[in-house]
Amino acid sequence: MAKTEKIKLSMLGLPVIQNLDDFSNLTHISKYTIYQLSYHSSYYYRTYTISKKSGKKRVISQPSKKMKGLQSWVLVNILNKLQVSGSCKGFRKGSSILDNALPHQGANTILNIDLKDFFPSISSKRVFNLYKSLGYNNLISTVLTNICTYENTLPQGGPCSPMLSNLVTWTLDLRIQGYVGKRGVNYTRYADDLSFSGLHPSKVLHIIPMINKIINDENFDLNYSKTRVASSARAKIVTGLVINEDSVGIGKKRYKLLRSKIHHLTLSSEQKNTSLLNHVKGWISYLYSVDKKRYKKVQNYITELSNKHPKTLVSQLLVPAK
């Protein structure tokens, strides 16, 4: 490894790894195991499918315990130390779908674009080039790439895949932000969801051809079936949250549905329905993270119902006094 590469890695705060001995010493994993995980990585995955909302199947490639352990080391000690673009809001510690939606608050028009087959579109070559750009030599870049990819793409289920996707799309984000920013259009990306907003519908619609060109230039494809434009006549939604003039939240429809489920916990027929209880708890936790205003309303509603029906499951939703 050249001296300049060592300096580059040190400046980035990354571990200097020149060979498998260095890698083994840092990870406390034997060279043999690292070699096996890298050059025979396909043996260390279990592949299965899950159903999407659309009815299609999503392929999940789940790494073995050993592989996941080494991938987690790479994630913590290398990938998480790197900065992603300012437009990127997904797969970041301390960032949520609320952070992705807030920049679009008050917009008259919102455009949502989805990248087709996001993880499978990111090849091993792009991951290798990323590690090389950080300062790692060919050997270590190859080993790191083999550890983090499966069948030449990012595996849906690998710990490193989300952060690697953010790093690989750095140029995509910068090119898009550079183009739309000059035109008074806001841009954020949450994984494969790209959101644009502005005060003038014509300006937002005008960017679509160039955005599509940039996406194609960066070796991604636009999922036309998920492209949505919302103006004053339609609900404005960004990553599942409803955007209004002065607020961002889950919206009236989902709020009423949640209240209905909470009320069901007071019914005598539902007193053994722990599945519903846990489902509602999950929704309340989600509400707390994205819609504080309605969260407070829900807590007041729970208190009201608990006073009326103290011996029902709804009382288990009460937040203990601090």
- Count all strands and give the number: 9
Strand percentage lies at: 5-15%
Low-pLDDT sequence parts: none
Biggest β-sheet, characterized? 4 strands, antiparallel
Strand order of the largest sheet: 4-5-3-6
From the alpha-carbon coordinates, what is the Rg to the nearest angstrom?
23 Å
**Distance N to C terminus:** 56 Å
Mean pLDDT: 92
* Secondary-structure class: alpha+beta
Helix content: 40-55%
User: Would you list the SSEs in sequence order as H and E?
Assistant: HHHEEHHEHHHHEEHHEEEEHHH
Task: Using the alpha-carbon principal axes, give the shape.
Answer: globular
The number of helices is 14
Description of the molecule:
The protein has 322 residues and is α+β, with helices and mostly antiparallel strands. It has helices at 3-11, 20-27, 31-39, 65-77, 97-101, 124-134, 138-148, 161-168, 170-181, 201-206, 208-217, 251-264, 274-290, 292-308, and strands at residues 45-51, 57-63, 109-114, 186-190, 193-198, 228-230, 236-238, 241-243, 248-249. It has a 4-stranded antiparallel sheet. The protein has a 3-stranded antiparallel sheet with strand order 7-8-9. A hairpin with a 5-residue loop joins β1 and β2 (57-63). The model has no long low-confidence stretch (mean pLDDT 92).
Strand and helix map with partners:
Blueprint: H1 3-11, H2 20-27, H3 31-39, E1 45-51, E2 57-63, H4 65-77, H5 97-101, E3 109-114, H6 124-134, H7 138-148, H8 161-168, H9 170-181, E4 186-190, E5 193-198, H10 201-206, H11 208-217, E6 228-230, E7 236-238, E8 241-243, E9 248-249, H12 251-264, H13 274-290, H14 292-308
Antiparallel strand pairs: 1-2, 3-5, 3-6, 4-5, 7-8, 8-9
Helix pairs in contact: 3-7, 6-7, 9-11, 12-14, 13-14
